[in-house]
Amino acid sequence: MTNENKPYDPAKEGAQMSFDGRMSYGDYLQIDKILDAQHPLSSAHDEMLFIIQHQTSELWMRLAIHELSAAREAIKTDNLAPAFKMLSRVARIFEQLNNAWDVLRTMTPSEYTEFRNTLGQSSGFQSHQYRLVEYVLGNRNQAMLKPHAHKPEVHALLKAELLLPSLYDEALHLLARHGIAVPQEILDRDVSQQHQANEGVELAWKQVYQNTGKNWTLYELAEKLVDFEDYFRRWRFNHVTTVERIIGFKRGTGGTGGVSYLRRMLEVELFPELWHVRTQL
């Protein structure tokens, strides 16, 4: 056998091959815990796909929360370059979440029916991490605290978030600090409530867009926010079409209207004035 045909041995180049008492890849990432978290409740082949799809989505959302929270703090302290990097990363996280729907859509209605009854009342709208993402962004529907009342620590986490200015609130405060006129009632508003589209805020963003040279960092922030919401909207839309493709117009397992509920979510605007101002430019 020539040297070219011999099996490659990475140890000959210094690779560590023995991990007794040493940290390995699996140790660092706690792979055993992750791979022991899939427990299908039926014999249906596709239940594993359904579980892993949602578990990986939760992992991506955990990273999104990490990045969005840090971006909010960076905007609050006028540290905009890192904030822009974080917002770009979150947009790409939601691109990954969008791609995941393509995998789930390989499951047919017949295949889902085989294990749907095992889900009980569980439903994606009960995801506290998804709710936290929306609360950080500013979609602060307090009615959605109710599904988490049975878990005091989760309920407290969401309530604590409602006491903080949202990412968009901090962006509007940033405009004001940079000399852009933002209505005082918006700056002083009750941040626990949903932000409503405001003509004065739209005029503030219009000022940014009409003089991008003078307001370049604010203009860049605006486009980072729009870019992120673009991906977020696509994720919501793909959610709707995936659900309709698999269950049609049946009610959701958690009791929602299913597709009708998800379509209503498509109407929610996270940063409304950034979309409305485009008509005025």
Key descriptive features of the protein:
281 residues; mainly alpha; Methane Monooxygenase Hydroxylase, Chain G, domain 1; 0% strand
Account of the protein in words:
It is a single chain. The protein is an all-alpha fold and 281 residues long. The protein has a single domain (44-117, 127-249, 256-280), classed as Methane Monooxygenase Hydroxylase, Chain G, domain 1. 59% of the residues lie in helices and 0% in strands. It is built from 13 helices and no strands. It has helices at residues 25-29, 31-35, 47-76, 80-104, 109-113, 128-137, 152-162, 167-177, 184-187, 199-210, 216-247, 259-265, 272-280. α3 runs antiparallel to α4, α4 (80-104) runs parallel beside α11 and α11 packs antiparallel against α12. It is globular. The N and C termini lie far apart (72 Å). The mean pLDDT is 89.
* Helix share, percent: 55-70%
Mean pLDDT rating: 89
Radius of gyration: 23 Å
Number of domains: 1
Described by its quaternary structure, the protein is: single chain
Examine the coordinates and then state which fold CATH places here, giving the name of the CATH topology: Methane Monooxygenase Hydroxylase, Chain G, domain 1
Approximately how much beta-strand content do the residues carry?
under 5%
Q: What would you call the structural class? A: mainly alpha
What general outline do the C-alpha atoms trace? globular
Q: Can you tell me the CATH architecture?
A: Up-down Bundle
CATH class wording: Mainly Alpha
For the secondary structure, the number of strands is: 0
Low-confidence stretches: none
For the termini, the CA-CA separation is 72 Å
The count of helical stretches stands at 13
Largest beta-sheet details: none
In N-to-C order, the SSE pattern is: HHHHHHHHHHHHH
